[in-house]
């Protein structure tokens, strides 16, 4: 029985036809419309190989292995991403689906596509710059978040200059794109705990000078999301060194105290979760202690009345009571 059934295309032929069609689309000649149709057709053929049009599971596995190898050898993944804007709407979604499916493929403990992308990091950087093009931003985001699940790929992104582009992408005026970029940004900083901790420690000044811009953003959603994420990062035990450094800076404390008084109750609430880390620190540096002592009475009064309507939130009320007690018991440090 032939490996490729009557209706089943040979992976090598499909990849070759798809590459030719995308290349024609890239040239943008008179046949571009026909090339677009051909791209859509061949993407459907790739999906039929991936999602098991063969008669048995074993045959499907063999076909997918061949397809993957052809995709690597032809450099087609990068070509598709580079030309994503030229592919029609459904085709864009097909590219993301194919990319993510091939990425998840593993042989035992190995992930061949992850290994391949490690040798072609421009795939990751091209996906990142996709956020600059509104017609493909969300497709690129879907593929990037799938990449971020793999530590080796997340590491390439974090330690690249391109990572800092996210501080701009999360503030773009198109809400869907800004939200998607923030989801990817958060995934990169929280998915692999040890990797993130090492990265933040090694690049503390650069990351947090950029992060400060987000906390001072004119955009309410950006400020709220970045404040919430900051709280999560500081309270993660893997980030103990980063947290200690952050809560030793009096400017950071002043910022949080100002954010406690924001008009938005949501921002007040997220600021509370960062502020509590400063107060709970048993080894407060003198500049931090001085600020808290200078504002001791005001803080006790303020916190007593702070979000009194959250009576059902037991954890919040316990934390608030603990902070009030800590601030009441503050004493100047012995010089």
Automatic annotation (TrEMBL):
GO molecular function annotations of the record: protein serine/threonine kinase activator activity
GO annotation terms (biological process): intracellular signal transduction
The family note in this entry says: Belongs to the Mo25 family.
Q: What is this protein called?
A: Protein Mo25
């Amino acid at each position: 029985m032939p490996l490729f059934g009557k209706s089943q295309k040979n992976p090598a032929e499909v990849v070759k036809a798809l590459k030719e069609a995308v290349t024609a689309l890239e040239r943008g000649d008179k046949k571009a419309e026909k090339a677009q149709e051909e791209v859509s057709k061949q993407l459907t053929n790739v999906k039929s190989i991936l999602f098991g049009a063969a008669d048995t599971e074993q045959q499907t596995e063999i076909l997918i292995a061949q397809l993957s190898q052809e995709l690597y050898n032809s450099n087609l993944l990068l070509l598709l991403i580079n030309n994503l804007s030229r592919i029609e709407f459904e085709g864009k979604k097909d590219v993301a689906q194919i990319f993510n499916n091939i990425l998840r493929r593993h042989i035992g403990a190995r992930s061949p596509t992850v290994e391949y992308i490690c040798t072609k990091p421009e795939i990751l950087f091209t996906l990142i710059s996709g956020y600059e093009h509104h017609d493909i931003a969300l497709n690129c985001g879907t593929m990037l978040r799938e990449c971020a699940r793999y530590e080796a790929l997340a590491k390439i992104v974090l330690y690249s200059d391109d990572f800092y582009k996210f501080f701009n992408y999360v503030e773009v005026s198109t809400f869907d794109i800004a939200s998607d970029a923030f989801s990817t940004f958060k995934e990169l900083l929280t998915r692999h705990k040890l990797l993130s901790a090492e990265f933040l420690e090694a690049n503390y000044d650069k990351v947090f000078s950029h992060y400060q811009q987000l906390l001072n953003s004119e955009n309410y959603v950006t400020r709220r999301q970045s404040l919430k994420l900051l709280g999560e990062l500081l309270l993660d035990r893997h980030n103990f060194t980063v947290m200690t450094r952050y809560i030793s800076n009096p400017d950071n404390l002043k910022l949080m105290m100002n954010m406690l008084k924001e008009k938005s109750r949501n921002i007040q609430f997220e600021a509370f979760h960062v502020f509590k880390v400063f107060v709970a620190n048993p080894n407060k540096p003198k500049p931090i202690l001085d600020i808290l002592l200078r504002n001791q009475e005001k803080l006790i009064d303020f916190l007593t009345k702070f979000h009194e309507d959250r009576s059902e939130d037991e954890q919040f009320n316990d934390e608030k009571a603990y902070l009030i007690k800590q601030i009441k018991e503050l004493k100047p440090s012995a010089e």
